[in-house]
Amino acid sequence: MDAAFSDEQEEIRRTLREVLAKHAGMDAVRAAVLTPAGHDTDLWRRLAERPGLPGLAVERRYGGAGCGLLELALACEETGRVLLPSPLLATSAVTAPLIAALGTPEQRNDLLPRLVSGELTGTLAVPRGTLPDALGLTVPGTLGLTGPGGVDRSGDSGRSRNSDRSWGGDWPWGGDWAGGGRSGGVQARRSGDGWRLYGEARQVLDGHSAGLLLIAARTGGYADARTLLFVVRPGTASGVTRTRLTSLDETRPQARIELRDTEAEPLGLPGSRVRGEPAEVGAGVAAVLAAEAVGAADRALERTVGYARVREQFGRPIGSFQAVKHRLADLYVAVQAARSAAYYAAWSGRPAAAGLALAQALETARKVAGEAVQLHGGIGVTWEHEAQLYFKRATSDELLFGPVDRLRARAAGTAGLFDTTGPFGAPGERETVVL
Fold this sequence. Notes:
Elements: H1 7-23, H2 26-32, H3 41-49, H4 69-81, H5 88-102, H6 105-117, E1 122-125, H7 131-134, E2 186-191, E3 194-205, E4 212-219, E5 226-232, E6 240-244, E7 254-266, H8 278-310, E8 312-313, E9 316-317, H9 322-348, H10 351-375, H11 387-401, H12 404-414
Parallel strand pairs: 1-4
Antiparallel strand pairs: 2-3, 3-7, 4-5, 5-7, 6-7, 8-9
Helix pairs in contact: 1-4, 4-8, 4-9, 5-6, 5-8, 8-9, 8-10, 8-11, 9-10, 10-11, 10-12
């Protein structure tokens, strides 16, 4: 790995930082979250034009910049520094890769250029479970390990997650994260030549404003149900009700989506082969989230160091006290370590590395934000100060994309760090002793 960034990568970072410094100050962020869209639509269009933010990691043939995951992660680190409320995560890190990997040529040619231009935003709706569950970053259960031959040992069925990559099987890992049947969620049924969806999905990122919804739905009866992804266009589809939710972190808007006999089309064709590994999409999301969390932690630490230099107590800056110096030094080391992990995850694209990087970044962001509030003293908990915004982002992200122990457990299982020959427990797992 070459640790030095190219001139193009440095230009992306510099250009984006300049634009955000002018148009995404804390006052602008506070105002943007109160708009119906939950973000500054004018700024989003400006970022789509230069530096082409939504299409950084999209192929040139679809109008994108043709860069990679590392460039997108660098951009998200900058947006994380200012807590930018934008459709970037849901659109560029989740929706666009899923369409590129699973969509038909017609769907890719129709949707990707519009996502790249900023004309269209998108999101993934997971009716049951969490986004990390759906993308394979975490799995239900305590360890969620995968045994020999890719057989999932975390559930009751013991079915192989990797034995059938066709778009007709349970995607991506055979879980019940789409809901449906007796578990609620979203059901899909055929209606003439098309499909209709019925059900509800909660806590959908940017679900109230996205112009394109990728809905996970269950098809078939209870005994032979399968999970498919469907494309819903809320601007033209009937029976779509979207309600913005009150969330801990207003810069990360969420919504509840209700579908009542809503027209939809499958993403891809039934029976076709999946283009690329779904795990790669999850790894990309984790790397981007890790970089974003590192950016937020870095900015919170930067502000805290600046405050420690000017806040005086007993006739001297509090930053001159040894105890404060040690706390700030520990935070600096933690941020740099998390940054290195996030960069490596984005560069390598390995699912295990991405999961570990996300866990480390979330943990670091929470630690830095908590210390920032404490070291700012009384003003750190006031509504007017920005320290509380970083604390809310760190806390909310750990709830939405964690917990970190499950991220690490899944990464360890993916990397094969557990003994697969021991006689204890289910095959493929080592006996675990909790002290």
